[in-house]
Task: inverse folding
């Protein structure tokens, strides 16, 4: 089976050919399988955004290749355009891209660009609205009359309506309050469950990463520093800290307990997972 | 708590304050309900107060009522004895209470960092030499002095916010109100801003009112106020507020994971961060033999 | 891309030009630009070129940056040169084919105009390279302040300029961001006729307008909070004081203008 996205030897430079040349991403190799939910983490300026902008050909690699669904996207104009629809990219603060006079029309912008017939466009808009949690009564409203969280959902629906095989989110919950944040993260989770599509998301919130992701890719100083399952990556807490990243608070507690000599695993990252371990400690069932 | 400082002098008082946006003003478009209603609240001098609440709970409005930008619909806001309703007080109040906003890009006026910090004192008509001194001092206290000649658009989000804070410091206000200053920042920028704010509060004794979404920032405050539907629904120390997990969650907020873990283990103590959590567990288990 | 816009970008340094009074610099730059157009022959133009090169060297701005500032005008430069070569006729004919004719005067005018445009751009970029935008608008405000008599709001104009300069990079970033977001939704900005392309700009233009209004609103709010009430009663951190070096510079530019006029009289005009 082909991978959803495969990247080989990818490098991208800013100010190429000048003395100020800096690598935004260098020699990146990665493979994201169909149906995976992958988190990309890294501090600001590490190259995360540059990397994801290559997934749908918004940026052209200076070196290396990008394959979407097994196809080299830079092979031809058609393959490039196809990649735009196969990989949906949802940027940070997507509500700032809304422009139509109704939510429905805005969500329809992508499918219309795909030159689908009206019937299909409508079908996709309704499906996307449902997946993104846009209330049906909002579809005929102006997007600018919605609240912040509702605007965000409408904008996300505008990407989902292209029915991409891969959906990429850059900081989907940035700026939302904890409740709205939780709802949005749950929405992404149920989107994956309902559609089975590949989802990639960039996040600074390690709690969200722990809750959502199957696998984590860590970017540091323009390079892929780590790749692995959530527990593998979070168990290397010290390395993450040295990259200006964090681990979830629970993981930090467990790492601190280990330092004190307690026998607890280092791949615990949610409150639910943590409770039985601490209970065991408190009951004195501490096996050394 | 702050040592050696009188905490019971009130710097800002809200007396039964109600405020509503008029129809064409608010970007959300929803206008009928008041943004804040019947708020009575006193902020003490030297206090670090965090304001929590969901989007639309009225916390931003509360912040903007503090320095006479908004005038209450009902009730009074008194800043150091001056009523914000009286127009001639506006300028005087803004010399006492400075504001820092969420989007760092939309509050920086000048194209060079130090010129921006000078903007406030220049408006106040301060002597040029004195402005220079204040600007240098303000930039040093937010650790941005070495960046004073850079252009704001080349700075990181955390650095921009620190410049904005320096801009308020240079006006030598007694109180600084920050409206979600870290919402658009990454964890590094958030930590920079929080450290700066804490230091200003502890070392310079500046009263801080900080609106935030982040529980880990709120636990650093002396006092936490939770708002919901325009009303103050919880008010106390972080320990007091976060000990009532059910209530906090009901208002659409969360508690730090450490607090949640201890609650799940039925540990009665008030734990707010990882270190405290580890200490409590260590004590209960009696250490490793 | 963003980094290509160099006009209006300050190059921090401490050269003689950097230390000059911004008002004097502004006036002298204006005077020397006028001088460029006084030149009537290659001798006076040569003097102008020497002045421009000397000023560049004095500024300590790397030659590469100065050359970079010429990049945006290359098209205009080539365009005017070509126009001049073909449309100005007179003197010896160098080349003739059907209706195309290249003459001595055409070539002279082309070279002359090219040098004029280059000096003009170099001198004005030197001004912006060596003066912070704040100082520049400040200087403009002070120079124009006599206009207050005519009820012209000089301070407001200067503040508008400062804010425009401040927000240019922010808005360019914003445009890039919106363009990428719409491209990711399959917006086609590159192909199609004029109408199609103009239509394709709507999804970019509307979000840009909305966010600009939001910015303006927030900025006005922030400025009020920082005690801004207009130009009345404001002081300035950076004072402006004329020094000996400013008067020397003034004398140099006067000499330049005098020299150009003298050379114009002494030698035959070519333009």
Result:
């Amino acid at each position: 089976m082909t991978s959803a996205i495969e990247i080989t030897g990818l490098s991208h430079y800013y100010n190429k050919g000048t003395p100020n040349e800096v690598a935004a991403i260098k020699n990146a190799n990665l493979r994201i399988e169909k149906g995976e939910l992958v988190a990309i983490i890294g501090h600001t300026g590490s190259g995360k955004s540059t990397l994801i902008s290559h997934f749908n050909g918004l940026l052209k690699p200076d070196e290396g290749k990008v394959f979407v669904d097994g196809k080299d996207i830079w092979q031809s104009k058609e393959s490039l355009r196809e990649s735009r629809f196969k990989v949906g990219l949802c940027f940070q603060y997507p509500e700032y891209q809304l422009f139509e006079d109704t939510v429905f029309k805005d969500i329809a912008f992508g499918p219309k660009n795909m030159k689908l017939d009206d019937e299909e466009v409508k079908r996709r808009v309704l499906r996307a609205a449902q997946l993104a949690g846009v209330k049906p009564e909002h579809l005929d409203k102006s997007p600018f009359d919605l609240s912040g969280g509702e605007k965000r959902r409408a904008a996300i629906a505008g990407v989902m309506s292209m029915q991409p095989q891969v959906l990429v989110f850059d900081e989907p919950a940035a700026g939302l309050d904890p409740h709205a944040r939780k709802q949005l993260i749950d929405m992404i989770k149920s989107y994956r469950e309902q559609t089975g599509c590949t989802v990639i998301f960039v996040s600074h919130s390690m709690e969200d990463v722990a809750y959502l992701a199957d696998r984590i890719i860590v970017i540091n100083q323009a390079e892929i520093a780590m790749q692995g399952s959530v527990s593998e990556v979070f168990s290397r807490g010290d390395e993450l800290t040295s990259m200006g990243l964090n681990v979830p608070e629970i993981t930090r507690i467990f790492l601190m307990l280990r330092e004190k000599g307690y026998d607890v695993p280092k791949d615990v990252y949610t409150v639910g997972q943590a409770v039985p371990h601490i209970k065991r400690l408190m009951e004195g069932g501490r096996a050394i | 708590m702050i040592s050696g400082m009188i905490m019971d002098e009130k710097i800002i008082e809200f007396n039964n304050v109600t405020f509503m946006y008029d129809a064409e003003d608010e970007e959300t478009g929803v206008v009928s309900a008041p943004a804040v209603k019947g708020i009575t609240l006193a902020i003490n001098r030297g206090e670090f107060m965090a304001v929590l609440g969901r989007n639309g709970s009225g916390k931003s409005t509360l912040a903007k009522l503090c320095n006479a930008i908004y005038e209450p619909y009902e009730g009074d806001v008194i800043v150091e004895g001056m009523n914000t309703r009286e127009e001639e007080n506006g300028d005087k109040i803004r010399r006492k209470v400075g504001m820092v906003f969420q989007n760092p890009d939309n509050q920086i006026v000048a194209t060079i960092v130090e010129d921006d910090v000078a903007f406030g004192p220049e408006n106040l008509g301060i002597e040029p030499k004195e402005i220079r001194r204040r600007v240098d001092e303000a930039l040093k206290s937010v650790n941005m002095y070495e960046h004073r000649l850079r252009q704001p658009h080349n700075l990181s989000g955390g650095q921009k916010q620190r410049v904005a804070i320096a801009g308020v410091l240079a006006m030598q206000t007694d109180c600084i109100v920050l409206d979600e200053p870290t919402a658009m920042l990454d964890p590094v920028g958030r930590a920079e801003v929080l450290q700066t704010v804490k230091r200003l509060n502890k070392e310079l004794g500046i009263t801080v009112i900080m609106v935030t979404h982040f529980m880990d920032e709120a636990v650093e405050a002396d006092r936490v106020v939770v708002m919901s539907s325009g009303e103050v629904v919880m008010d106390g120390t972080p320990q007091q507020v976060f000990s009532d997990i059910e209530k906090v969650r009901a208002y659409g907020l969360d508690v730090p994971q450490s607090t949640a873990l201890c609650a799940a283990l039925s540990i009665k103590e008030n734990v707010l961060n990882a270190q405290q959590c580890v200490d409590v567990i260590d004590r209960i288990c009696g250490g490793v033999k | 891309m963003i980094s290509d816009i160099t006009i209006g970008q300050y190059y921090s340094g401490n050269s003689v030009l950097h230390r000059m009074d911004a008002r004097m610099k502004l006036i002298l730059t204006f005077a020397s630009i006028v001088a460029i157009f006084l030149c009537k022959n290659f001798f006076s133009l040569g003097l102008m070129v020497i002045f421009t090169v000397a000023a560049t060297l004095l500024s300590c701005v790397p030659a590469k940056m100065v050359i970079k500032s010429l990049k945006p005008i290359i098209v205009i430069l080539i365009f005017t040169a070509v126009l001049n070569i073909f449309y100005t006729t007179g003197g010896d004919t160098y080349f003739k084919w059907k209706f195309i004719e290249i003459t001595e005067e055409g070539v002279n005018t082309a070279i002359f105009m090219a040098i004029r445009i280059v000096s003009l751009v170099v001198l004005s970029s030197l001004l912006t390279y060596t003066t912070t935008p704040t100082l520049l608008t400040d200087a403009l405000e002070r120079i124009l302040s006599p206009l207050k008599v005519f009820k012209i709001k000089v301070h407001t104009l200067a503040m508008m300029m400062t804010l425009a300069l401040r927000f240019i990079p922010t808005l360019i970033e914003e445009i890039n961001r919106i363009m990428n977001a719409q491209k990711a939704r399959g917006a086609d900005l590159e192909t199609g006729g004029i109408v199609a392309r103009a239509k394709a700009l709507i999804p970019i233009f509307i979000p840009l307008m909305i966010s600009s209004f939001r910015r303006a609103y927030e900025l006005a709010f922030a400025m009020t909070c920082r005690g801004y009430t207009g130009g009345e009663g404001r002081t300035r951190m950076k004072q402006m004081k004329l020094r000996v070096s400013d008067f020397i510079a003034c004398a140099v530019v006067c000499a330049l203008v005098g020299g150009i006029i003298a050379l114009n009289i002494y030698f035959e005009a070519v333009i």
Chain B touches chain C at residues 27, 67, 69, 91, 94-95, 98-99, 101, 103, 105-112, 114-115, 118-128, 131-132, 135, 149, 151-153, 167-168, 171 (CB under 8 Å). The two ends of chain B are 36 Å apart (CA to CA).
